[in-house]
């Protein structure tokens, strides 16, 4: 999947999950969803050309280098008899359920130890990731949202309520990324290290007729439009507002 599609699907996943973790206000739901959207790009940190790897220059570049080498080393010692003869540096370690759970657990521990300051840092980093994929307009919208938040609510108190729960947003973002990649031609070794058909790094993928190529027609003209609509509809209060907007003229016409 393209980076923008990963961010878009991550945003929708975050909005869908927010009520389940108790993010009751619009502010909290949007902060949670922004985190999921940004971290839906994190697994591609194992590719030097990815947006996530270039985001903070040499800092994320070094993390990319470390992740690639760790992934290649792990692949070398764990590959099964039917795994492909490859280096295993891209679409391996960071594209697994274990990585998603580890990133989520680390975020939970960090936010619990550091409080709302760490929560704010995680959300900001996620926004930078998402804005890099979706466009700088997102930063302008986020800036307006922060100002609105500061005027209408206690931002620090509401961020503190996300402490511990933000790890779910990070893990969900990584999982969303992997599920998206599993629909492409290459597949995704999501269930490592569970051995399947002689492969420790078995690439999960649907039947051939359900797969699509990254950046081609299915992604651009089906997946992106559908999730763009969902990205708006899933915002708390948006559905009822849209229904009211279109229902009022109809009711008035009937009367």
Oligomeric state: single chain
Number of strands: 0
Tell me, rounded to a whole number, the average pLDDT.
84
Structural class determined from secondary elements: mainly alpha
Largest β-sheet summary: none
Uncertain residue segments: 241-247, 250-254
In percent terms, what proportion of residues is strand? Answer: under 5%
How far apart are the termini? 49 Å
Give the helices and strands as they follow along the chain: HHHHHHHHHHH
Rg from alpha-carbon coordinates = 20 Å
User: Quick one: overall form?
Assistant: globular
Helicity range: 55-70%
Q: Would you give an account of this structure?
A:
The structure is a single chain. By secondary structure, the protein is mostly helical. Helix content is 65%, strand content 0%. It contains eleven helices and no strands. The chain has helices spanning 3-17, 26-39, 51-54, 58-78, 97-114, 116-134, 137-152, 155-161, 166-182, 217-233, 238-254. α1 runs antiparallel to α2 (26-39), α2 packs across α6 and α6 runs antiparallel to α7 (137-152). The longest helix is centred in the N-terminal third of the chain and has 21 residues, at 58-78. The chain is globular, with a radius of gyration of 20 Å. 37% of the residues are buried. This is Metal-dependent hydrolase. InterPro entries: YdjM-like. Pfam families: YdjM (PF04307). Keywords: Membrane, Transmembrane, Transmembrane helix. The chain crosses the membrane at residues 55-77, 98-131, 137-157, 221-247.
